[in-house]
Specification:
alpha+beta, 10 helices
Length: about 240
């Protein structure tokens, strides 16, 4: 006779929507909710809402294809899985059949100047366009700015913790099991960057935030010219 715990767990599983069930199977295959979010190019909070708010129906076809690629195709690379998901993700439509607008936060930056924006592989490949309004607003308000990038370890010129790099603070370096490394550039302690100057760089790159960040990292001798940015986060604050 099955235990109460097993019966309760089985009942919970059958009550979950298909997006949550597919996310469960991907987690069983070794991927985290953050990984799944990167694969579908959305915020990790949305993946949590598969469970708590019954969301995710629009991503079911993409998640099915990703799961098939993982289980039968042996695909493990996140950028490759993201490309598969992108081909099977369709935008929502309104009652009239037109494409629905993407929901965005009404306020990118708080009154105190604090703001954060993150993008993953798919958005990075297309120029990280969603970060441009954040940078432009930070420039308009005269804020400071910092960013975090993730690249292959071999793409960096200097070893982690080098004073020539970021600048010698090891806590701003995160090494990952997939041989990539996250490094932060700029902080409230070091003063960060002038958002106005950074916005000019983005404008000069035709609005391509990825290219602007890559160019700065290359110009300052921090990464190799052929390096590819895998993850990008921008943070803002008001200097005191």
């Amino acid at each position: 006779m099955p235990s109460r715990t097993r019966r309760r767990r089985s009942s919970q599983d059958t009550g979950r929507n298909e997006a949550a069930q597919l996310a469960d199977r991907l987690q069983q295959a070794g991927y985290t909710k953050r990984d799944i979010a990167r694969i579908i190019d959305r915020d990790p909070s949305l993946v949590s809402q598969f469970y708590s708010r019954n969301k995710g129906a629009a991503f079911v076809p993409a998640l099915r294809q990703v799961l098939t690629a993982v289980e039968t195709g042996g695909v493990t690379d996140l950028p490759e899985l993201a490309a598969i998901a992108a081909r099977h993700t369709t935008r929502r439509t309104t009652a009239s059949g037109t494409r629905a607008r993407v929901r965005t936060k009404a306020l990118l930056i708080t009154p105190t100047g604090s703001g954060t924006g993150r993008v993953a592989s798919q958005a990075i490949a297309s120029g990280s366009a969603r970060l441009r309004p954040l940078i432009a607003e930070a420039a308009r308000r005269g804020l400071r700015l910092a960013f975090t990038v993730r690249l292959a370890k071999t793409a960096y010129v200097h070893p982690s913790g080098s004073r020539t790099d970021s600048p010698g603070i090891r806590r701003d370096v995160t090494q990952r099991a997939d041989h990539t490394e996250e490094r932060s550039y700029g902080s409230a302690q070091t003063g960060g960057f002038d958002a106005t100057d950074f916005a000019r760089r983005v404008d000069a790159a035709g609005g391509d935030v990825t290219a602007a960040v890559h160019q700065w990292l290359s110009e300052t001798g921090r990464i190799r010219p052929e390096a590819q940015i895998l993850h990008l986060e921008v943070r803002t604050w008001r200097s005191r």
